[in-house]
Every structure is written in structure tokens, then in C-alpha cells.
Amino acid sequence: MRESKRNILFLALGSFFIANAIIAEFVGVKIFSVEETLGIPPFAIRVFGDTYSFNMTAGVLLWPVVFVMTDIINEYFGKSGVRLFSYIAAALITYSFIMVYTSIHTAPASFWVEKQTDNGPLNMQNAFTQIFGQGLWIIVGSLVAFLLGQLIDVYVFHYIKVKTGNKALWLRSTGSTLVSQLIDSFVVLVIAFYIGGNWPLKLVLAVGVVNYIYKFTVAILLTPLLYVLHAAIDAYLGKDLAAQLIEEAAQDF
Question: What is the rounded CA–CA span in Å between residue 209 and residue 215?
Fold first, then answer.
């Protein structure tokens, strides 16, 4: 029974982690306005002499959840558990992009290409390509940033835990997330739009700062969720098994 609960928890956390990582990659093609979504005026943040608002990729809605799941997996299954799911997620994201690329280059059925909408005819093939056909550098940048962010998150999480023990869950979880998302925010932009595109470095850094301000805020707001998940998992596992997994995870460093 104890082993069954352990395995179910491991699979459930890993599956949710991987699903969020894959979905985030695909919805990230949409750029949305945080202020307009919330119905508030633009913040008009000044960075390096220019003004920016919170126009973010839709992927940022899911990445904070991914990093929270990273910390929960880290807490109960250690760095080996996080690394396993990170590598699986990266492999499945790569596979997904390969299959999407293949789908884009299949010949569309003639009756499917033109679709009538309330706003006039829509070329479905062009729409499909524009939505799913992300550039190679964006794909490479997001994958590198994802893996690097995960590995850094694991290291920082365990470093803080070594210093504080089992106390201060908020510190090791939120602290590791803030550090890893700082790296993630800039790596993906540098690879995708500075190396792979024609963005000036000043613009890359400015957008990275705005992105990180958003991620920083969301990470802080999600801190209570860590305690809710921790309590729910402890209740599911039972006090003894939960303590055993946490102790084993702490030694996986």
C-alpha cells in the first residue's frame, strides 16, 4: 500500500508537470496584455529609457505552475525525480514539434483550406502554420531555457534545504523558483531573438526585465499553493511515509 501510494504520487506529479510544460510551449505563441485582461490601465514600466507594458506570451500562465510542480517533486523525490521528468518533458516537446512540423507540410484537403467565418474567408492552412509553426530558434531557445532553469532550480532548492533543513518551505521553493526563472527569462530571449533574430541586446534585456517582474510577482503569489499541495500530499501519503520520502529526497544531492 505504501509503495502503491508512492508510485501513484510520482506518476501524478510527473504527468501534470510534463503536460503543463508541453502545453506552455504551444500556447506561448499567443501574446496577451496582462493589464487589458485584468481590466486595468497599462503600467508603462520604464526600462533602459523606454516604456514597456506587460505584454506576455500565454506560456507564462503555465510556467509558474511548472516551477511549483518542480519544487513539489523535488521535495518528495529529490533531484533525480526532477531531472527524470525534465528530460522526458524536453524529449516529448521535441517530438511534439517534429510531429507538428510534419503536419504543417502535409497537403491540406481543398475543402478544408477555405473556411467561411463571420469576418470573411479564412485560409486554414495559413492559420495552422502561423499558430503552430514556431521558428527553430524559438524552439531551441525555449528548450535550452527550460532544461537550464530546471537544473538550476534543483540545485538552489537543495542548497537552501541543506542550510535550513525541513523548515522554511516557502524559502527554498520560492527562492529556487525566483533564481531559475531569472535565468529562464533571459536565456530564451537571447537565443530566440538576439542570436536567432535581429533584436538589439537592449530590447532583449528590457523585455527580459519586464518578463521577470511578472514571473517574480506570480511566484510570490503562488507561495501559499505550495503549502496547500504539501498538506494535501502529506494527508494522502500519511505522516510516516511523507516524512520518509522527504528524508530520502534530502539525501539525493
Answer: 10
